[in-house]
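Is DAU placement plausible here? Inputs below.
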Amino acid sequence: MNILVTGGAGFIGSHVVRKLVTSYPEYHIYNIDALTYAGNLENLSDIEGAQNYTFLKADITDIATINRLFTTYKFDKVVHLAAESHVDRSIEEPLAFIKTNILGTMNLLNACKSIWQDDKKHLFYHISTDEVYGSLGNDGLFTENTSYSPNSPYAASKASSDHFVRAYGETYGVPYIISNCSNNYGPNHFPEKLIPLFINNIIEKKPLPVYGDGNYTRDWLYVIDHAYAIDTILHKGVIGETYNIGGFNEWKNIDLVKLLCTIMDDKLSRKRGTSESLIEYVKDRPGHDKRYAIDSSKINKELGWKPSVTFEEGLMLTIDWYLANTTWLKNVTSGDYQAYYTKMYQS
Ligand code: NAD
Ligand code: DAU
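Reply from A.M.:
I modeled the complex. Tokens:
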């Protein structure tokens, strides 16, 4: 079986590629990635020589290249993660999100539609987000039946690509599954997102920019648990179904940041309170979603998946990984990223 993973050099994609390459020597895993600022082959250095793994540098918005790769490698299944993934960037540059997240997804769908003959052995599996559902009030959870109500350009682009995936299933018979996951954290997370940005800033004693009053809620899942959920859905998921993935693990940003600060003080042998003194309340994110919370009982009941680590365990593993991989942090935060970061937080 030839399995294509797109965006496999990114945060979640690299954990998915590693899981599939190491668990299924009988499959060949192809990783297509454009290696944008968020993609990094260092994330996969441990498996780069594996017999059942091939990396192909390509941009999913390049129709000719995508069609050529599908014709050459005859992918049986696609696990599609390649995307522009950062909400703040989508507010600055929405067109980049339309291009990769919508048009790139369309190119992959069109390639599958024209090449796949026997529907039964194929699958287009779209990795999506809970942000498509919009924002919750103080109560309730997102279920698979919650209507779409995206608020950021990123969320709108992912909602649009979800709709196209479903439409290609209904109209052309492309076999698909969609999963919508909550906020991931863990090793290899690019330090523009809350947890890795704040870990990096604490190490470097830089300010910790908390948006608005910090009373926004996110539902956090350890990235390796997400990779295992994707593996479960790839093998046991039902065609045409949607699965929500999450860990029933809600945290207000400010509470999470304070916990992170305390653990980091202890790990870095700094006096308790040192990191917390770096917190700065800054201008809020426009259209900031108040609360995300996922009901993941369907994947648990129907496919038997559940998270393997608690948040406290996952956060410790994450912090330890960043402290042991400061060279990775330095490499990914050099170059263009510095200019972007400076612009974001000076405006
Ligand atoms: P990421 O930004 O870390 O990685 C994205 C990867 O896609 C990078 O390797 C990048 O080089 C690649 N890429 C970007 N544009 C491309 C293009 N035009 N052609 C080919 N490759 C391209 O993102 P992530 O956080 O790992 O998210 C992966 C997927 O999971 C995304 O689709 C995202 O919407 C979804 N998701 C993320 C989260 C989360 O918390 N991070 C939660 C739910 C869903
Ligand atoms: O819910 C799933 C989504 O989670 C994914 O689809 C996205 O790809 C992923 O980036 C993430 O989106 P968020 O916007 O929730 O994640 P982020 O880490 O950017 O922000 C988490 C919360 O922290 C959010 O309420 C905004 C806040 N925040 C973020 C940053 C970067 C701050 O207060 N300060 C910051 O500097």
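Short version: Residues 7, 9-13, 33-36, 38-39, 59-61, 81-85, 100, 104, 127, 129, 158, 181, 183-184, 190 surround nicotinamide-adenine-dinucleotide (ligand 1) (CB under 6 Å).
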